[in-house]
Amino acid sequence: MNAFHLLSELTVFVLAVFVGLEVISKVPATLHTPLMSATNAIHGIVLVGALLVAVVATPTLGPVLSVVVVFLASLNVFGGYVVTGRMLSMFKPRPTAPPAPADGGKK
Amino acid sequence: MPAGAAGSTTQLGIDFAYLVTGVCFIMGLRYMNTPKTARLGNTISIVGMVIALAATGIVLDWPAGWWIVLIGLGAGAGVGIYAARAVKMTAMPQMVAIFNGCGGGAAAMVASAELLKLHPATTAVPVDLAITSVLTAIIGSISFTGSIIAYLKLQEVMTGRPITYPGQQVVNGLLAVVAIGGLVLVTLNVDTVPAFFAALAASLVLGVLFVLPIGGADMPVVISLLNSFTGLAAALTGFALGNNVLIISGALVGASGTLLTLMMGKAMNRSVANVLFGAFGAVKKVEGGPAGSSGSGVVRESSVDDVATMLAYARQVIIVPGYGMAVAQAQHSVRELADQLEKKGVEVKYAIHPVAGRMPGHMNVLLAEANVPYPALFDMDDINPEFPRTDVALVIGANDVTNPDARSSPASPIYGMPILDVDKATQVVVLKRSMKPGFAGIDNPLYELPNTSMLFGDAKSSIDKLVSGVKAL
């Protein structure tokens, strides 16, 4: 491998860090929990790497660990997005009438 | 770039798709800047993920590995979606912790595969691959086992109190040395395979030992730090695989986790190092008496009827929720109480301390779940000037974030931590399970102030009683 290649990857990395800091610093404290969950789902992108090493003719990890790595990464992606979705659904604008069906279960 | 055996045009298309994914993730996070657009942001982020996975699907060896995708991805999706749907809102922090650990573990395994593929026992490993893959294995493993311990602590399977033993830092230091030593040996191509596995094992143990001495109330810091670790591990995996989408996504997450970690450290006026290595709350203060500023030692207990009357005839009430509200799952009752009070013309506001709960913004999510309108939630800096103008401050299961010693007593371990100035309200009502000190094991002189009254019992049942008390007036 050559140093130029590594440097160009490092460039992408450093610029992405700055974009990340810039974008994240604009998120209000109210949304910090969903934000953490959203970024949690985003690093589930490692599923791409998991598929690339597991779904080949002769996976280095062997059959069992190949399934495990895809499983773990999928858990991260799907669980992460569903949890984030659930958290964010709580920040929906309130239904038109305040005593809406939400607490309709009153005796 | 990996030599495009399948044709460079295909690889070009895939790399372009990855670029689109990176943009989707950035836009998705950008839309998180207001509650209104946040859900759109999540959708954009999902679209980005689907694009990246679809593009990756083009180069996979389906005939050989279709069943791996079927079982691994199928089970992961099934379990993940089920667990995420079934979990109670109050248990969110540990859910996020466990998903984070899975990502870290996966990153460590991907990097291991990438390194071991080269048959490093007989073949020289290129320097850049050695560094990035071993680093990924180290950081990913720490995140994996560390997240599991964080999960166990938050789920209260094991004690939330710091677990300490003599020589703890030395043991951790030695493990770190083994991990770094392994990294160096692999880079130098000396005993590559044993060195790699030594680094891997040391990191797995280090993840466990590093979270053990950190107490439950410091978990927001730990979870966001572990989140940034997994992000970093994902980015390093990208270096090892030569994959830009992993680098970009990992960098975003790493930046976000680091920023949140620092913000929380700042909110507690403690360095992140102090949170991680301080075993905060383990050291019981033996000094006792003199720490408490007023130190009358007299605590006034109040009754539901008294408190209900006090609240109903107030002009302004500020509710201060803490972890106790989450534990008792009292958020819906709190909302109902606020509704009843508002019917009586009382102005109700919520004061949110940045580190209340077990995740950054934990209280906000719980109150949002109970349909509390978010403009009623105030950050510490905005609400503190309001307390002197407030008739009743209602503290629900919050302790250390209201401790006036943090302002006035240099002897207190939390001295200097910014707090909510509840003691400046005309009346303070504290809902608490018992007189046990809070997580930090520090006495709270707030409870002994003449304008404070205590209402003991489970937060939810106390509030439910207050609701009927207020209704009856």
Fold blueprint:
The complex is a heterodimer of chains A (107) and B (473).
Chain A: H1 3-24, H2 32-42, H3 46-54, H4 62-89
Chain B: H1 8-30, H2 35-59, H3 62-86, H4 92-116, H5 127-154, H6 168-187, H7 192-211, H8 219-241, H9 244-267, H10 272-277, H11 304-312, E1 316-321, H12 323-328, H13 331-343, E2 347-352, H14 362-369, E3 377-379, H15 380-383, E4 392-396, H16 405-408, E5 427-432, E6 452-456, H17 459-472
Parallel strand pairs in B: 1-2, 1-4, 2-3, 4-5, 5-6
Main features:
heterodimer, A: 107 residues, mainly alpha, B: 473 residues, alpha/beta, 6-stranded parallel β-sheet, 17 helices, 7% strand, elongated, disordered N terminus
Percent strand of chain B equals 5-15%
Q: Overall pLDDT of chain A, averaged? A: 86
Order of helical and strand elements of chain B: HHHHHHHHHHHEHHEHEHEHEEH
The low-confidence parts of chain A are: 96-107
- Largest Cβ-defined interface: A-B, 86 and 116 residues
Structural class determined from secondary elements of chain A? mainly alpha
Number of helices of chain A: 4
Oligomeric state: heterodimer
In whole angstroms, the N-to-C terminal distance of chain A is: 71 Å
Strand count of chain A = 0
Rg result of chain A: 21 Å
Q: What's the arrangement of strands in the largest beta sheet of chain B?
A: 3-2-1-4-5-6
Name the beta content range of chain A.
under 5%
What is the rounded Rg of chain B? Answer: 26 Å
State the order of secondary-structure elements of chain A, H for helix, E for strand.
Answer: HHHH
* Class from helix and strand fractions of chain B: alpha/beta
Q: Enumerate how many helices of chain B there are, as a single number.
A: 17
Helix content of chain A: 55-70%
Description of the structure:
The complex is a heterodimer of chains A (107) and B (473). Chain A is mainly alpha-helical and 107 residues long. Chain A has helices at residues 3-24, 32-42, 46-54, 62-89. Chain A is built from four helices and no strands. With 473 residues, chain B is α/β, with parallel strands linked by helices. Chain B contains 17 helices and six strands. Chain B has a six-stranded parallel sheet with strand order 3-2-1-4-5-6. In chain B, helix 5 runs antiparallel to helix 6, helix 5 runs parallel beside helix 7 and helix 8 runs antiparallel to helix 9 (244-267). Chain B is elongated and about 80 Å long. Chains A and B meet through helix 1, helix 2, helix 3 and helix 4 of A and helix 1, helix 2, helix 3, helix 4 and helix 5 of B.
